[in-house]
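(Deposited chain)
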Amino acid sequence: MKRNLFLSVMLIAGTYAMACTNFIVGKKASVDGSVFVTYNADSYGVFMPLYHYPAAKHAAGEMRKVCEWDTGKYLCEIPEVAETYNVIGNSNEWQVTVGETTFGGREEMVDAFEDSP
């Protein structure tokens, strides 16, 4: 029953959600102690691949390019850390996971001065 309810909620939320959405199930909420993290992007037509960033050691002064993930537009560079971990998707080899939930908001709440010089 709980599983069917959970799956129903996921289906409904995935069908009607108008924002990036995460479902996170902790070890105490799953039958076998598994942890689940899901991510749904609300941008139709942006079908991204599953990224892999291998672990690496970086020299002092090395810089990392920062680009928009969906367009690839270059933004800036930031100092690289000395060591990075193996990352697949949004999770690293230590099971640290990053997610985000965003919603552009209601159009009538847009700042009228947002595009002003």
About this structure: Strands lie at 21-25, 36-40, 52-53, 56-57, 63-67, 74-79, 83-84, 87-88, 91-92.
